[in-house]
Write a structure and sequence with these properties.
Elements lengths: L1 H21 L2 H17 L3 H15 L7 H12 L4
Length: about 80
Amino acid sequence: MLPTFLTTLQSHILDLENSLDAFETLSLAKAGHKLKGALLNLGLDDSAAIAKRIELEGAADNQAVDYAELVGQLKEQLKEIL
């Protein structure tokens, strides 16, 4: 079960990166939301908090947020898992 879940987590990270590349805040919000749920299921609360911020700021269409920095923080925190 865990390998499947990790594959899903990687897919969510890829969705987040694609949304970042296109700089579509609504897509960032959706990807952040999915990723947040996956991270909470793993008990990764600190990483989930970053995903939640991406979700909320993206939903608010806040273009002043450094989403690349937030995605980088997530990837750094998750590199050992992925």
